[in-house]
Amino acid sequence: MKHLSKLCASALLVLAAAAANAQHKVEKLWETEPLLKVPESALFAKDLIYASIIDGQPWEADGKGAIAKVGTNGKIINADWVTGLSAPKGMAIVGDLLYVADIKDIVAISISKGKIDHKITVNEAGGFNDVSADKKGVVWVTDSQKGAIYKVEGKTATLFMDNIRGINGIKAIDDKLYVLSGKEMFVTDASKNKTTVVALEQGGDGIEPVGNGDFIVTAWAGYMYYVNTAKGTKELILDKHATEKTADIGYDPATKTIYVPTFSANSIAAYKLQ
């Protein structure tokens, strides 16, 4: 009996170790028709996905940009839901407002009205990229061209942090900001203390929490990773670099679905995290 107990204990340890080291993977669910003209960002919101459509050069103020609506079944609801933007990228929602990064503008769109409510223009900005909102309704925006983070309260944007080389994706969680900066993911706080979470082989783009402290992170070049923040490790879960990009992702934690803008492939693809 004592020998059997030891065997059972050993087996449980082996199973626990296997579970701890389990490899994550993704299964492709669908991909939209290639009718979205250079989608850069996907934002999941309840029962649909908002997609930022550049339709031109990534940093050119050409007025061609738009926000599209896509169903969670992969059907394009409206490719031109809101127009009049230039090179829209990251997005975040606070109440009825959808905030969008658009070069030197932080554009606030009324979701109920389906039109631009107001713009916050920062003349000294180089090029806004990603957007995230915290639980207090404060909006955080990265400036990839100037290497900075801006804090937006109401209709006022103020510089929060600068000298961040290669900054792109940002996610506000509780009182912390998780940031993708070149080939690094770091976390910072109100005191601007900076701690590296993990190193990447490629420049990071999209960042989404999965709900257990870990993250899904993309590199624009066509790679997607599962990041274990506690261990400071990453797993490559998708490699599409030969055929398409993996830009600023959206995530539905309830269904564990990742929505990936393919940029120049003109589509959004959905993957199930397993």
From TrEMBL:
Source organism superkingdom: Bacteria
Keywords for this protein: Signal
Organism, scientific name: Mucilaginibacter auburnensis
Signal sequence extent: 1-22
UniProt-recorded name of the protein: Sugar lactone lactonase YvrE
InterPro entries tied to this protein: 6-blade_b-propeller_TolB-like
